[in-house]
Description:
Layout (H helix, E strand, L loop, with lengths): L2 H11 L3 H4 L9 H9 L9 E5 L4 H14 L4 E4 L11 E3 L2 E2 L2 H18 L3 H16 L3 E5 L17 E4 L7 H4 L3 H8 L9 E3 L7 H11 L3 E3 L4 E5 L11 E7 L2 E9 L6 H17 L6 H9 L1 H5 L6 E4 L3 E4 L5 H13 L5 E5 L8 H6 L5 E6 L8 H10 L4 E6 H11 L5 E5 L2 H5 L3
Parallel strand pairs: 1-5, 1-6, 2-5, 6-7, 7-8, 13-17, 14-15, 14-17, 15-16
Antiparallel strand pairs: 2-3, 3-4, 9-10, 10-11, 12-13
Helix pairs in contact: 3-6, 4-10, 4-11
Amino acid sequence: xxxxxTLAWLYAQLPMYQRVGVAGFKPGLGNTxxxxxxxxxxxxxxxxxxxxxxxxKGSSAHLLAAVLQSAGYRVGLYTSPHLREFTERIxxxxxxxxxxxxxxxxxxxxxxxxxVEPSFxxxxxxxxxxxFAHEQVDVAVVEVGLGGRLDSTNIxxxxxxxxxxxxxxxxxxxxxxxxxxxxxxxxGIIKPGRPVIVSQTQPEVRAxxxxxxxxxxxxxxxxxARYDVQPAAAHAAPxxxxxxxxxxxxxxPWLDGVELGLPGDYQRLNLPGVLATLDELQTQGFVIPESxxxxxxxxxxxxxxxxxRWSVLAEHPLVVADTGHxxxxxxxxxxxxxxxxxxxxxxVLGFVRDKDISTLLALLPREAIxxxxxxxxxxxxxxxxLAALAAAAGLRGQAYGPVPxxxxxxxxxxxxxxxxxxxxxxxxxAEIV
Length: 433
């Protein structure tokens, strides 16, 4: 099979949660363990950093990989979902998985898939781990897909360190409808005796992590107790592709003028966890000079290919896209959008149909002009339905259907001093970045 034929076969055979929703989700580790056993347990043949959380886990994983690459290590990176191309999920030193490797790997293991009947995500994890073992990476940074305890990536037996970024509401039907319940699922990646870093101290869930760490005999650190990250100077221009921050460590100035290649304000909440995780790796023998730290933080997008986090697509008018899609993520992004100097605000939005968007609609500014769209996936909420729900919430706008049509309408209507924001769903952003 060719690469496109291989992908088409996978999508047809293995339900993909990102496209179809709950039908593509298989909780539990049984299938992944069966795949791993057939592959000779690749998860035990490379060192890893395991990253979970509701918001910030993808950015944190990319930042860690970028710094480790800058320090000269051979680094695997597994993240999900992909934005445009399947091969984005699996990277080696920033380079995407070669399509030929996927084609040959799937052809070799189709019989295994027939026996195990894995989900799409379970197959992806097995592929990534087999690839990292094959390539003999120095370390792999592995992002959890959904939750933690029952996520396929959680077959990792003993990560060098686990990082948990943030806990907020998302996927409640699968993870629980309270923050402590969601935190308990994320805490499932904490392994016996292995250190765990929590990026943010959140009073509602702190005890969950403390209890789990005690049970597992795992050293626990809340990173924001060690690191404080603030803007280094006046806020950068809205179209900037980076931001400068000042970092205090243990209450004292540590690094000033650090350039962070991700301009979203919310990245300052992720950075303490990244820095504390790098500290832990250094105690385990990794050598990470300050020059490597600065380069990795500054050049993260070019080193790892990260896209969709406060991506500036155009200026005059300023056009920004961001994948923040749950209540906490969208709230943080909207705060930064509203702080931008602008005459009128144009919001291009689409959501998935299996999400309760009532709380999200309540966050949206009433004065904005809305362009409702639907991503090209089965899970997408039809633009007309979204427009009706939004109108009932007091928002004014029109349904445009496909994402490119809605984006084009917003950019045509916007004056040079206006701002256009594109988001609501990862899959909306994926079509335009």
